[in-house]
Write a structure and sequence with these properties.
Radius of gyration of chain A: 41 Å
Structural class of chain A: alpha+beta
Strand order of the largest sheet of chain A: 1-4-5
Mean pLDDT of chain A: 85
Order of helices and strands of chain A: HHHHEEEEEE
CATH topology of the largest domain in chain A: Nucleotide Exchange Factor Grpe, Chain A, domain 2
InterPro entries (chains A, B): GrpE, GrpE_CC, GrpE_head
CATH class of the largest domain in chain A: Mainly Beta
CATH architecture of the largest domain in chain A: Roll
Strand content of chain A: 5-15%
Shape of chain A: elongated
Organism (chains A, B): Peribacillus cavernae
Subunit structure (chains A, B): Homodimer.
Number of strands of chain A: 6
GO biological process, one term (chains A, B): protein folding
Oligomer: homodimer
Helix content of chain A: 55-70%
Number of domains of chain A: 2
Largest sheet of chain A: 3 strands, antiparallel
Family (chains A, B): Belongs to the GrpE family.
Number of helices of chain A: 4
Chain lengths: 195, 195
């Protein structure tokens, strides 16, 4: 940088000045030493203002770099926030839908005694499947339970039983279906666990 | 600003210099005129570097202000994007659910001939209402159609009829239900319009 070069010159000349004081009567008649004196004196006088300006430039430079760093951080945060908002956008609606889905599944657990009921049930099975497909498209899926090992992160134990036909700590029955939204638990499965 | 004051002094001294050249042999013996010469010479020599530094400071200042303006704009955009993402977050899941909802409504349009079918239909009506309530909570609502004036923004005319019992340009029949998501048309209602 030109600033640095200049500063070096200056410090040099400053030493020269200390070497031979410039206002001694004897000197001024002598060409060379006078020009030398003029130059060093000039640099010496101008130095404080130049130094001040160079300091200001340095301070403005670091202020600019700080602002740029803040800008980059803010952009990165905004991007991450938006990604999370997109990833879990279905959470609110899906959560509200779960109760209707529970009722739906309860209502179709019947043995049809007529053809009409049977065909209505078949239609409802298709509708139910359609709802689950729509949820799955947004990353919402039922949590597996019966026959799986109990996992406190996704299963909620509401009863304990002793059942020889199951291993210990395995889920014997599901009392309410649980759902995941991608890597999030939308609702844990309420289960009966074998001791 | 101190810079301005300084610049004035300098231009003055520059004139002085032109008035009396400082390296004339005659002068150097004379104290006063020599000091004067030294000062004006000094200012004259230092001026180019000082001007350069001051120009750089000005340029850095406007560069900082430009970056700050970009920063503010980027923050405002990010906020608006996030607000829109939140407002319409249910759009994707709701859109996927519409077909299942159509099938649901078609399937329950039957006349029950047994008590079992009747009670199953009642259960399904409740489930259907629960689904619509969940959608409504997220701002998704059916578009009114039959008996309303045709509105190309929310209604899609698939047939025209002539029916004395309706006014002109009024919707006579709804062939597929439409839905709004807040101020957005999720799906227009497909309708039969009176000429």
């Amino acid at each position: 940088m030109t600033e640095d070069k200049k500063t070096d010159n200056v410090t040099d000349t400053v030493e020269e000045i200390e070497a031979e004081p410039i206002f001694a009567e004897g000197d001024v008649t002598e060409e060379g030493s006078q020009e030398e004196a003029l130059e060093s004196f000039e640099m010496d006088q101008a130095q404080p203002e130049i130094a001040e300006l160079e300091a200001k430039i340095e301070e403005m430079d670091s202020r600019y770099l700080r602002l740029q760093a803040d800008f980059d951080n803010s952009r990165r945060r905004a991007r991450l926030d938006m990604e999370a908002a997109q990833k879990y956008r279905a959470q609110s609606l899906a959560t509200d839908l779960l109760q209707a889905l529970d009722n739906f599944e309860r209502a179709i657990q019947i043995e049809p005694d007529t053809e009409q009921t049977k065909s209505l049930l078949q239609g409802m099975d298709m509708v139910h499947k359609g709802l689950l497909d729509a949820l799955k498209k947004e990353g919402i899926e039922p949590i597996e339970a019966v026959g799986k090992e109990f996992d406190p992160h996704i299963h909620q134990a509401v009863m304990q039983v002793q059942d020889e036909s199951f291993d210990s700590n395995v889920i014997v029955e599901e009392l309410q279906k649980g759902y995941m939204l991608k890597d999030r638990v939308l609702r844990p499965a309420m289960v009966k666990v074998n001791e």
